Amino acid sequence: MLDNMALEDADENPITPSDVKTFRMQVARYVSTFFSPITVSIPAIFLVALYHQEPSSLFFAAIVVLFLSIGPMLYILVGVSLGKFSDIDVSIRSQRVGPFLFGITSSLIGFFILQLNNAPKNLETVLLTASILGFILMIITFWWKISMHASGLSGTVTFLAVLYGRMVLLAFLLVALVGWSRVVLRRHTTAQVIGGAALSAAITLVMLMLRGI
After folding, report:
1. Burial letters for 35-53: b for 16+ Cβ neighbours within 10 Å, e otherwise?
2. Which domain holds residue 102?
3. Which residue among 10, 50, 58, 90 sits deepest, i.e. has the most Cβ atoms within 10 Å of its Cβ?
4. What percent of the chain has pLDDT over 70?
5. Which helix or strand (DSSP H or E) is residue 3 part of?
6. Is residue 126 part of a domain?
7. φ/ψ (deg, to 5) at 84
8. In this predicted model, which residue has the larger pLDDT, 53 or 162?
């Protein structure tokens, strides 16, 4: 009898396509938030620092975090609170120039500070690459809303793969997952996600080669 009642309840409350869509959207939001550029950048910077195994590396890593992640994020948060930006992702393309310029300038300042203090080359390269990539993405953004989430994660994974080798390569699956989340949330098209990931990986590789890493 209990089995029959359970079957009847299941028939009365079937899983509908809208339920599946809602669940998919929730998963996409969690993925997108967890793997946002700032969330990814902070642990990645310290992984780059730990690669050196030098006592001063963590100190310099903190400087990189300040100029690459915390400073730009505070700029965006203040902008959101003042109504200048729609949200912390700065989803509206026309609003992205300010955050790009601030991020580029902040990264360059951090880069020169590290250079003046003989910081590890890898950490300098993180900031220099972020500046150059940020400039290129800003120019593209005038015409096309390229994905910052895919770009940030792809560049990060590429950088760490060069340092740590094959064990990092599986992390490229996360790039695909983040790309999927951005498309599901309708923040980007598939082309914008692929373009961001491919461009970031290519520029990161070029910068690492030019810097002799």
Report:
1. bbbeebbbebbbbbbeebe
2. 35-210
3. 90
4. 89
5. helix 2-12
6. yes
7. -75, -30
8. 162
Q: What is the mean pLDDT of residues 134-152?
A: 94
Contacts of 166 (CB under 8 A, 6+ apart): none
Alpha helices in 51-188 (DSSP H): 57-65, 71-81, 97-116, 121-141, 148-164, 172-184
Judged by DSSP in three states, 139 sits in helix
User: Residues 39-62: pLDDT tens digits?
Assistant: 999 999 999 998 876 778 999 999
Please provide the average confidence, as pLDDT, over all residues in the chain. Answer: 88
Cα separation, 167 vs 169, in Å, equals 6
Residue 147 in contact with residue 195, Cβ under 8 Å?
yes
The first and second tokens of residue 101, run together, are 């310029």
pLDDT for 158 beyond 90: yes
- Token code pair at residue 205: 């590789």
Looking at residue 53, its pLDDT comes to: 67
Does the residue 9 lie in any domain?
no
- In angstroms, what is the C-alpha Rg of the chain? 20
Contact partners, residue 183, CB within 8 Å, separation at least 6: 189, 190, 193
Residue at 16 is within a domain: no
Determine the Cα–Cα distance for residues 139 and 97; give it in Å rounded to an integer: 9
- Residues with Cβ within 8 Å of 83's Cβ and at least 6 positions away in sequence, in order, are none
In a domain, 15, yes or no: no
Q: Whole-model pTM? A: 0.85
List helix spans (H) across 13-120.
Answer: 17-34, 37-50, 57-65, 71-81, 97-116
